[in-house]
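Thread: Newbie trying to understand structure tokens

Hi all, I'm a second-year student working on a class project, and my supervisor (Dr. K.) asked me to get a predicted structure for one chain before our next meeting. I've only ever worked with sequences, so writing a 3D structure as a token string is new to me. If someone could post the tokens and maybe explain what I'm looking at, I'd be very grateful. Here's the chain:
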Amino acid sequence: MKFILTAASRSRRTFRAVNSLLLILCVVLVASCSKELKAGDPITLDYDKAYLIGDATTAGWTIANALPMTKGTEANVFTWTGPLTAGEIKFPTALNFSSDTFGAATAAQSISNNKAQLSPGGNPDVKWKLTSAEAGTYKVTLNTKSLTVDFQKQ
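---
Reply by user tm_fold:
Sure, no problem. This is what the structure looks like when written as tokens:
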């Protein structure tokens, strides 16, 4: 018995071959588009809220009393103006201590150094430290993209 290819069976074989080629192409494209993140790679996350917390603020360390910052028209920029006293300060993104937090780049960092770091889940727990000579009214600007916090005495 001879096997005769009909138009329908040829069409199915062509369809399967085209599908197989498309699948291979998709796998190659996905593999070539992947990027491995390494330590130090910039990751920009968008946050809806940011707060001030610490004994340098009127909120103290009571997270429920954290002071809300105002999100500006420029993406990733938050501001707050008010009194700061001697003590420590950091910037959580939610009203809990396990939220992502923007902290100082080094422990007990001076407010003259604006370099910040993102602490996922609040770790590491690093803060800026204000001295009694630095106490006063400040405009504080947090930029979550450039990882900076500017303290401008008013």
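A couple of things are worth pointing out once you decode it. The mean pLDDT is 86. The first strand starts at residue 51 and ends at 52. Feel free to ask follow-ups in this thread.
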